[in-house]
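Worked problem 6 (solution included).
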Amino acid sequence: MAKRTFLFLILILLFSCHKKNERAKELLLIATDTSSFINKTELTLKIFSDSTYVFNVNVNGQNYNKVENFKGYVKIKNDSLDFFPSRFEFIRADKANLKNGYIDFIDGDAPFRMKINSTKLKVNNLIDLSKFKNYAVFNYEKNVRENDENLNIDLNEKDIYEIESLLKPEFKKRKNLNEYSRYLKQLIGYKKANGEKYVIIKSFCESRYQLENFRKNVIEMNDGGKCNIFIVLNLTQKKIEIFSVAGLA
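Solution. The predicted structure is:
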């Protein structure tokens, strides 16, 4: 009888430890990214409360398939993530920020972001993008080759309204352009050494492909005519300094 009681107590202890470990490894965040250019690629990031993360890569093509799994550790501090003791290996990034519904990885081999599906972590939501359906906001990436002293700034909804008030009249007076509302806008805010705030605006005509992807990556286009507009706006002085329409005089 005593032996059975002892075994029963051991089972209860093991079950309690298992439940405790489950609670200790609570899922804090899930982020995903899917693309279908040439091959279908599905990326999934999961972050747990024990400071571990799992990153899965699944590539499916007609003649090519690949599955990769990355694991590591991350320090969570408010709305920022620090990867340790090594980088986030997929793009060799040291840090990431949780902002406006996305994870933005910083100082990696290439700009990279993932959409947050669900999270219990703090996210710095300065802009409700559901209210600004034709806008995307990105971090300023330093150009190390040109001794870049500019600093990234976080744009907010007030800034977008200010940008609109300056751009709408400019678009309206240029009769060769489409209506302002029919363009997608990618915004990149930065501050110069003199303290003045600027915004780079890359604007493109709406299309099915652009609508699906313009919030994921900064678009680079060499021509495009009136469907490719490059703008530099001085937000401090409230004036447009560059308004360049590709392919037009």
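Discussion: The chain is about 20% helix and 40% strand.
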